[in-house]
Design brief:
215 residues; alpha/beta; Rossmann fold; Arc Repressor Mutant, subunit A; 2 domains; 13% strand; globular; disordered C terminus
Length: 215
């Protein structure tokens, strides 16, 4: 993150929504809106050109969807954080966003102050989820004894929840990166998650870890 603050790209096909997000962030001295895009394709170009820290991404966009755009951004720019902001809280959208690697999901009904807090949180590696959407991540059944996390997996999960990347976790625990990746795979499988963000949110819902989520 540059000394000028958190660089934010706003992606939404509705001009009023882009203007609203821009207005909410513009008065914050630590936040800088560096660009706006109305399509996923344009967003990909601007991420390449502007190198934002955080992308505010609508889900339903003309052409490339917000979820697919998120997946492509994180494939090419893994350090970028993407926060989905949508009028829709459908299960398929929320799970799809988390599976694509998004750092969180908010509804457009969230006040501007909460949007500001969410941008700051995801920029530091935290995970943010609209409180009304956490029901989506409740596990339908309790995990059996054979699916319980090991002590080491709990340690890795706690560090994932704190926003550390695999290399940082490896250094913290004195493990190889490949070993950490193997632990992450086991954690995802046991929690029924397809990404680190979803794994963290499921763990929070089960009370396994604490994280900087909106509750």
């Amino acid at each position: 993150m540059e000394s000028g603050g958190i660089r934010v790209l706003v992606v939404d096909d509705h001009p009023l929504h882009r203007e609203g997000a821009h207005h909410a962030l513009a008065d914050q001295p630590d936040l800088q809106v560096v660009g706006e895009a109305e399509t996923g394709e344009r967003a990909l170009d601007l991420v390449d050109a502007l190198q934002p820290d955080v992308v505010l991404m609508d889900v339903r966009l003309p052409g490339l969807t917000g979820i697919e755009t998120t997946r492509q951004i994180l494939r090419d720019h893994p350090a970028v954080r993407v926060l989905l902001v949508s009028a829709y809280g459908d299960d398929e959208y929320v799970r799809g966003a988390l599976a694509a690697g998004a750092s969180g999901y908010l509804l457009k009904t969230a006040p501007g102050s909460e949007l500001v807090q969410a941008v700051r949180a995801v920029a530091t590696g935290a995970t943010v989820l609209e409180a009304s959407l956490t029901r989506i991540l409740h596990a339908p059944v309790e995990a059996g004894p054979g699916e319980r996390l090991t002590e080491r997996e709990f340690e890795v999960l706690a560090l994932l929840a704190s926003g550390l990347r695999n290399k940082e976790i490896a250094n913290r625990l004195g493990l190889s990166r490949r070993t950490v990746e193997r632990h992450c795979g086991e954690i995802y499988a046991k929690l029924g998650a397809s990404s680190r963000t979803e794994a963290v949110m499921v763990a929070v819902e089960r009370g396994l870890v604490g994280v900087g989520t909106r509750r």
